[in-house]
Amino acid sequence: MAVGGSRGLIRISKNPACELQAALAVRGVKEKDFYERYTGEPFPGEYGERQSARRRGTMFEQNLHKDGASVLRKALASSFGQAAAGMSVLNFDEEIPGTNRKARLARRDKTLQFIERLAQDDLSVPALLIQPVLPLSVTETGVHYLVPDFLLLDTEERIYVPGEEKSFIVRDNVVDRADMDGARRQAGAQVVGLRQAANRHGIGARVRNRAVFVFASPYGLSPARPVQESIDAEVHEIEHALRTARIVAERLATLPADKGLETVADQYQRHFTDECVRSCVLSDVCARECGTSARLLGDSAADLIGAETPIERVYELMQGLEPTNERERQVAPRLVMLSGVMQDLGV
Ligand code: SF4
Fold first, then answer.
1. Structural domain boundaries enclosing 196
2. Helices H, strands E: what count in the chain?
3. 234 phi and psi, to 5 degrees?
4. Do 230 and 315 lie in a common domain?
5. Which end of the chain has the lower number of beta carbons within 10 A, N or C?
């Protein structure tokens, strides 16, 4: 069983308490297909990355990798002080072309060989690996293959550092928060995969929670100055997502392959949060199903009042009705105050 792409793992990491979302990812079910089978209705709205964004991303990467990755090497050298001309490069797209299973496994084997050589302190490995493949064990038998945009050798620490290339534009050293979040979680999964590989040779401790990011400058396809960032939180969240995926995978193992997930979906716990609206195609379905509880009012309200408190009761407390338990006694004055503010604002 394999988690459906690092995209699935990233989704789980944003809301690891939702078993249904994890089941979709572990089973490799396309969210849009699930939505349509579960609700019996066509999915309303756009789904997936827009073609124009994907095209720009591809062009950005191609520009970085052309001519022996000269643009990427120059950009990295500007930040990390390595002589761009002397940086040895192995571009897997050229060395082992193709995206089929055979090519993927061949890329994985070669990537792992370089890590094994680093464990023997052999620093003659390529300084820059483009489109390598790292296996990430999700379950005992399930492996997912991660493809970092590049791995950059840190010669002092004798280990590679994952690198992500994104065509998001950096303005005044700032990248859109949502874009950055996705890139950091992707890199977090790569750190976990790299550490698993390094651990097999006893050098897992060399892998730190960090990644290099290469974003676009506002000038065409030129890269902005690459940055190396600590990604402790994202690595932690990906590890949490892996734990959830393993638990859900055990339960899914009892579901026959020809039986759709929609037939047992209601047996998987959901956890509706603010994040659902931003990142899950089922958000309107789940919102409808928890439509009478305070969970629908968002994370802060759910934490304050109790996620399962009926919305009707929240309104009663706002209108000054007598609290009936300790939690209501604690939040009632704030709800009354909120009601006053809303009246002042004419809401
Ligand atoms: S919208 Fe529903 S299925 Fe999706 S993450 Fe939220 S609770 Fe889970």
1. 51-243
2. 13, 8
3. -70, -40
4. no
5. C
Q: What is the mean pLDDT of the chain?
A: 87
* pTM (predicted TM-score): 0.81
Number of domains in the chain: 2
What CA–CA distance (Å, rounded) separates 319 from 274? 26
Residue 242: CB within 6 Å of ligand 1?
no
> At residue 160, does pLDDT exceed 90?
yes
Q: Is 187 in the same domain as 330? A: no
| Closest ligand 1 atom to Cα of 272 | 7
23 CB within 6 A, ligand 1:
no
pLDDT tens per residue, range 255-306: 888 889 999 998 998 888 888 888 888 888 888 776 666 666 666 777 777 7
Domain match, 69 and 209 both = yes
Ligand 1 contact, 15 CB (< 6 A) = yes
Contact 245, 26 (CB under 8 A): yes
75 and 201, same domain (yes or no): yes
CB 133 within 8 A of CB 146: yes
Same domain, 296 and 175: no
Regarding the beta carbon of 139 and ligand 1, being less than 6 Å apart is answered no
In the DSSP assignment, the letter for residue 213 is E
